[in-house]
Amino acid sequence: MATTAAAAAAPLDEAKARNVLRQVEFYFSDSNLPRDGFLRKTVEESEDGLVSLALICSFSRMRSHLGLEGEVKPETVPEETVLAVADVLRRSSSLRVSEDGKKVGRAKELLKPDEVIEQVDSRTIAASPLPYNVKLEDVASFFAQYGKVNSVRLPRHVSDKRHFCGTALVEFSEEDEAKGVFEKTLDFAGVDLEIRPKKEFDAEREVKKEAYEKAQSNKNGGESYPKGLILAFKLKKIPADSGAEQNGGDKVDGTEGAEKEGSSNTTEKSSIGHEQKAPEDKGNAEEQTDGSEEAKGVAAGETAQSVDKDDKSPSDNDEDTVSREDIKEEFAKFGTVRYVDFSKGDDSGFIRFEDSTAAEKARAFAAIADEGGLIMKAHIVTLEPVSGLLECNSRRSG
């Protein structure tokens, strides 16, 4: 419970103070604030441009930095904690703290958000492919070799926002630093990286979103894909520490976005900032602030966490072994499944639908996914059409 303002506020230890300072500076930075709908609105509605520091302390990453456990709301943040944080934030040249230490904001007013976003995008690159379980801190450290990194975003999968899409958005402090990376041949974890301007990534993502929405609304979603009743599929194991979950299919929730931790969550690791973990309480301010649209982020210089925080190892649980029944149930959302040719433990098989439209929908859904397939029990399921004699010979009752 909150204590009186007169209570002596124990100072934060240096490591904790450093993380708190970086985190709050990030929340109000050009990298995050223009895109953070909740926090920006809160600032704009404030007469003096300051917001409740208790509110800021209730955000997920701040709770973690401060060691606040359980259900934390602005009104339940201990007052001595707020005052201790205020003392730390007064060190910043980019932040302004109220005299009583209970409110915080930018030292300089935010310019036109659209112009700021344009500037930020001009110094941001899109790098891929990256491991599904990549850590924000590792991406930040890697690109820090080529310039000062303001932020790193790990956008979520278009069709399943619980998972990282494989492309990181890295914002440098200067546009020239970003341009310099385009001229380099980079290797991350043994894989050559493709470096593109963020605008190209955004344009491609919009196309995928539109295709996904069409597929979801059953409006000619699979029209451009080969027709046929039977699809061949292959299973590819996702690294155990990636925390992958079964594909959500029609349960995909488009509201989950950038992790709350960094942008007020929309941003990522290098920056202080996704695309945020899924909000726990949609009515909670933190969720909206910390959970921007599709990225997951943390502050630059902070200890990053892997995209999925589940410590369970899929390989340790038989529930993560895909069975014929799992395949049939998962693909039933696209249409009636007549047969599934697959045995538990296999890494490939065949699915036969009642009609070709269902097969087309399944192919369309998988093709627009960034991984190129559906996520099912810690596996990526990729699909290919089958025709001719193969179609006749690949039928086992499901």
TrEMBL record:
Keywords carried by this UniProt record: Nucleus, RNA-binding
GO CC annotation terms, alphabetical: nucleus; ribonucleoprotein complex
Record-annotated RRM domain positions: 123-200
Region (Disordered): 241-326
Domain XRRM residues, every copy: 306-398
Cross-referenced PROSITE patterns: HTH_LA, RRM, XRRM
Biased segments, Basic and acidic residues type: 248-262, 271-285, 307-326
HTH La-type RNA-binding domain location: 10-116
Subcellular location: Nucleus
Any Pfam family: RRM_3
Keyword RNA-binding: yes
Superkingdom of origin: Eukaryota
Any one GO molecular function term: RNA binding
Function of the molecule: Binds to the 3' poly(U) terminus of nascent RNA polymerase III transcripts, protecting them from exonuclease digestion and facilitating their folding and maturation.
Name of this chain's protein: La protein 1
Organism: Urochloa decumbens
Upper lineage: Eukaryota, Viridiplantae, Streptophyta, Embryophyta, Tracheophyta
